[in-house]
Design brief:
It contains 16 helices and 12 strands. The protein has 372 residues and is of the alpha/beta class. It folds into 3 domains: 22-127 and 323-341, NadA-like (Rossmann fold); 131-225, NadA-like (Rossmann fold, 3-Layer(aba) Sandwich), CATH 3.40.50; 227-314, NadA-like (Rossmann fold). It starts with 21 loop residues before the first helix and ends with a helix. The structure holds iron/sulfur cluster. Iron/sulfur cluster binds next to helix 6. Iron/sulfur cluster binds at residues 105, 130-132, 158, 224-226, 297, 321, 323-324.
Length: 372
């Protein structure tokens, strides 16, 4: 609650195009009524948020905010700068801005760099990894191609540019099934996410032979360490504790594609982050959602709770991505201060070999063509 007991109105809370005073920024933060944003958070961080917004505007910086960012970081991005990694990269490519700050992990920023090679793409922490991308590279793709000669390789966007450069087509969790069906031949290699691959295999069992790391081979694959944490017994316990019985018309349990196959089977709805958000929005619109649990990164639920205040969301905030959590306000302000003072940006800039950019752009462009 605002210290005065009132929350003064602020025009268009997320509109970053208007210059705001420090007091207006603070009011804007209180006006969000974000369930996981406390007065202490606001009082401690409002000054930094104000500085970031001022410098962002001064230098015409596009600030991309992934859905898994904590609320204060997520809220730095305008509405059209928020979303999933591919959507953000596509948005960034259409803007005129020279500086892109990608509030996410480096593999996401690489995709932005591939689609905007002449722009300066910056991340708050270049050491932030990802259990999927870090444990799979170009060499692993080559090994699978040797094992299944002639089979096309579809790679999840959650991978580094060098692995994409060795692959035929990319996919997201929203379009994987559609893209897979569009590929020639009976067999498709899918990398690197093993659970996602098993879920896709089940979905396409009548249409494609999906092969992946660890399926009758010794190739290396990976799983998302966040979505891996949800087990079937967790979901059953959540159903019981939060009173979300299967088939309830207004209470739903959602799971992300990267979860285990038996978790997906138990969920009332599974899909990508954007598909889950769309389903929630549609149900809210029809007044058909009163309670929900989303088996995914905890901050996604925090941000959903702000967007859909009438829904009672239950969260599992022990399930956080430690890599995404490395993106913090104090690091973001450092980037903007470096831009402002003309300092060297090497500590933050994501760079790629131009030859890798050229090769990695092809599978992304093929995916975009196949998506329409
Ligand atoms: S949640 Fe974290 S570990 Fe999982 S795919 Fe995203 S960045 Fe990687």
């Amino acid at each position: 609650m605002h210290p005065t007991g009132k929350t003064p109105p602020v025009e268009n809370a997320l509109n970053g195009s208007k210059e705001l005073t420090f007091e207006e920024v603070k009011n804007e933060l209180y006006n969000r009524h974000h369930p996981s944003l406390t007065s202490l958070d606001i009082e401690v961080h409002a000054k930094t948020v104000h500085k970031i917004r001022t410098l962002k505007r001064k230098h015409n910086v596009v600030m991309l905010g992934h859905n898994y960012m904590e609320p204060l970081v997520f809220g730095l991005s305008d509405k059209d700068e928020q979303g999933d990694s591919l959507g953000l990269s596509m948005f960034a490519a259409k803007t005129e801005a020279q500086y892109l700050i990608f509030n996410g992990v480096p593999f996401m920023a690489e995709t932005a760099k591939i689609l905007s090679p002449n722009k300066t793409v910056l991340v708050a922490d270049k050491t932030a990894g990802c259990s999927l991308a870090d444990n799979f590279g170009a060499e692993d793709v080559r090994k699978l191609k040797e094992l299944y000669p002639g089979a096309p390789v579809m790679i999840y966007v959650n991978s580094y540019a060098d692995a994409k450069a060795e692959s035929d087509i990319c996919c997201t969790s929203a379009n994987a099934a559609h893209i897979a069906k569009s590929m020639p031949g009976d067999t498709l290699i899918f990398v690197p996410d093993i659970f996602f691959a098993q879920n896709l295999e089940e979905e396409l069992k009548e249409e494609k032979n999906v092969v992946y790391p660890g399926k009758d081979n010794t190739a290396r694959g990976a799983v998302c360490e966040v979505h891996e944490k949800f087990t079937l017994s967790d979901l059953l316990a959540i159903r019981e504790s939060f009173e979300i019985p299967k088939g309830h018309p207004k209470r739903k349990l959602y799971a992300h594609w990267e979860c285990r196959p038996n978790v997906l089977k138990e969920a009332d709805f599974y899909g990508s982050t954007s598909q889950i958000m769309k389903d929630i929005a549609a149900r809210v619109e029809d007044n058909h959602l009163e309670r929900a649990f989303v088996a995914s990164e905890c901050e996604l639920t925090s941000n959903l709770a702000q967007e859909f205040p009438k829904v009672q969301f239950w969260t599992a905030c022990s399930v956080r991505c430690s890599h995404m959590a490395k993106v913090r306000l104090d690091k973001i302000v450092n980037i903007l201060e470096a831009i402002d003072s003309g300092e060297d940006l090497a500590e933050y800039e994501v760079t790629l070999d131009p030859a890798v950019i050229d090769k990695a752009r092809l599978p992304i462009e093929r995916m975009l063509e196949a998506s329409v």
